[in-house]
Amino acid sequence: MSEVDPSAFLLRCLSAVRLRKAQALLYFLLADPGSVHRSEKIIDLFWQDSDQQKASSSYRQVIRHIRKEIADVDGITLETGLGVLSLHLPEGFSFHQHFATALSSHQWDADNAERITEFLSYTHRLEGISSSYDSWLAITRSAFLALVRESLDARMGNTQAGDLPSLRDPAGFALQLEPSNETAARILMTLDWQAGHATRAIERYNALYAHLDEEFDQEPEAETIELLAAIKLNPTAGGVRRQVTDRRPEVSLSVRMLPGEGIPADMASFGTVLFADLRMRMGRFREWRVIDEQGGEQAQIQIMLRPVHALGRYHLFVDVQNGSDGQLMWSEVIDQPETEWEAKARVLLSNIANALSVVVSDKSLSDSGSAIYDRWLRAQALLDAWSPQTEGKALSMLEDITRDAPRFGAAHAELAGALNVRHVLLPGTFQTEEVKQRALHHAIMAVSIDPLDTRAHRVVAWCYCHKREFGLAEFHFEQSLNLNRSNPMTLASCALGFAFAGNPGRAGDLIAEAKSHSAVMEPFHLIYMAAVDYLRGDYAQSAEECSRGTGLMPTVGGWHAASLWKLGRTQDAQRRLADYLTEIRAQWCGEDDPEDARIIEWFVSCFPLHEESAAADLRRTLQDIAGD
C-alpha cells in the first residue's frame, strides 16, 4: 500500500465487494478502523428484521465474503473473536485524517477531491439497509462534510488575495459538496465576473438562491446579494466590488459569565479574562449581533459560561439557550481552558456557530408554527410534573402534535421518551408490547426527521432496550454520545443503558465521566448512577447515592435496600425495604392489590436487563430481604 495512495486503494477494495450488506459492513468498519464491535450489535444493525438463525447465517456469509475480497491485501486484517469483530488498517490509517491532510496541502489535488466524493457517495448509495444504519450514514456524512468544509473554508479564507484564480477548483468542489456554501459561490461569481462572464456569475447566484429558498427557506447573505448588485450595475467592471455596509444580522445573542464554583483565589480573575476574550471573538461573527442586554433588547440566543473548579482542575461549562424561554439547545464543557486556549476557543466557536445555525434555520420547527411549539411546551410542563392526573393529558397532547405536525421531530422524541418511562413513574403499571411498539415508532420517526439529534438517538436506544434488541440499543447509545458527549444527561443515560445491556466496562467508563460533571448534573442523575454502580458490583457507592436521592424516583428504595443487603447490613436493608413498600403502596396505580411480591415484581420489571441472571439476582435479593 505504500506505493499507492491508501485512500484510492481502500476505495477499490470497497468497490470490489459485490454483496450489498458486505459492502455496507466493510464501509462501516473502514469508517472506524481499529474499533472492536460486538457481533450481536452488527447482526442487529444489519439484520434487524430477520429471525436470529437466518441473521446469524447471513452474518457469517458476509464475513466470509469480506475475507475473500481482502485476502490478498497486505496490511488489512479482519479479526473475529468470541462475539466480537474489528478491522485493522496499516499504521492506523484513517480516511478522515488522510483527506484532511490532503486538503490542507498547498497544491490542489483533483484526484483526491474525486476520492472524497466517492467516499461520501457511499453514505447515499448504502441507504436502506436498516433505519439504524441509515442514521449512522447520516451522522458519518455530516461529520465528514464538517471536516471537509473546515479544510476548504481555511483554504478559501482570503478572497482578496491576488491568487484568487487558484481557488476556482477548491470553490467548485466545495459548492459541489454543499450547494449552500456562499463563500464558494461568491468566489466563483467573482472569478466569472473578472473573466468577463457576468451572465454566468448571475446564473450561479440564481442557482444558489433557488437552493437556499427550497432547502432552507432563506435568502442569500447580504454580501452575496451586494456582489450580485455590483455585477448587474457594471457587468464589465472586472470584479471591482463595493464593500458591504450597514449590515445588521437578524440573530442577536448575548454572552454571560455566571458565578464560578470552587474557584481558587489565584484563578478568580481568569474567568473574567475568558469572558472578555470569548465575547470579543463572538463579535467577529458577521452572522450574529452580540448585544448587551442591559441596553433593553432581549437576545434571541443566550450563551452562558460557568467556570467550575473540581478535583484540582478548572472547567468551563458552556450552554446555548433560547433567550425567550431558557430552553437548552446545546452544551459543552472545556477541560482546563487555561491551557491551549487559542485552539480550544476556535473549536468552541465553531461548535457554537454550528449550534446556532441549526437553531436559526430549523425549518421543521418554523414550518410547524408557533402554536404547535406552544402546545409542545405545555406538554413538556405536564411531563415535568408527572402524575396520574397529568400523564394522560400530556401523552394525548403529544399524540395530537405528532398528527398535526408529523415533521416536528421533538414531539416524536418526547412522546417516545414518555412512553419508555411511564411504567416507572406510575407504580403498578407494566409495559406492554403495544406500548413498546408505539414508542419505537415515534423514536424512529424522530431519528428519521433529524438524524443528528442526540436525544432522538438516546430515546430510540431505550426503545430497543425495552424490545430486548440490545445490539441496536448500544449502537444508538454510541451515536448519541458521538453527537453530544458533553451533556451530563447523555452521559448518565447512556451509562445506564450500557449497564442494562450487559456491558459493565463501557458503563463504568461513562459513569466515571458523568461523575466528573457532578457540578452540573441534575439530582435525578444520582439514581442513574446508583443503578449503574449496583450492576457493576459497587454496592457501597450505590447505597450512598441512593441515600442522597431519596424521593427522586419511584425506584430509589428498591436499589437502596438491595445495596444495603449486598453490603451485609441486614437490618438496615429490611427497614429500608419496609419503608419502600409502604411508599409504593401509597402511589400504586395498578389494578391488582399491591402485595409485597407484586411490588417486587413490578420493580424488577422496570429494568430491561440483558442478563437474565442479573434480573433473577435482583428479584431474589429483594425477596430475601422481605423474608419470602
From TrEMBL:
UniProt key word DNA-binding: yes
GO molecular function: DNA binding
Any Pfam family matching the protein: BTAD
Ranges where the Bacterial transcriptional activator domain occurs: 73-232
One BP annotation, GO: regulation of DNA-templated transcription
Keywords assigned by UniProt, alphabetized: DNA-binding
Name of the protein in its database record: DNA-binding transcriptional activator of the SARP family
Species for this entry: Paracoccus homiensis
Lineage per the UniProt record: Bacteria, Pseudomonadati, Pseudomonadota, Alphaproteobacteria, Rhodobacterales
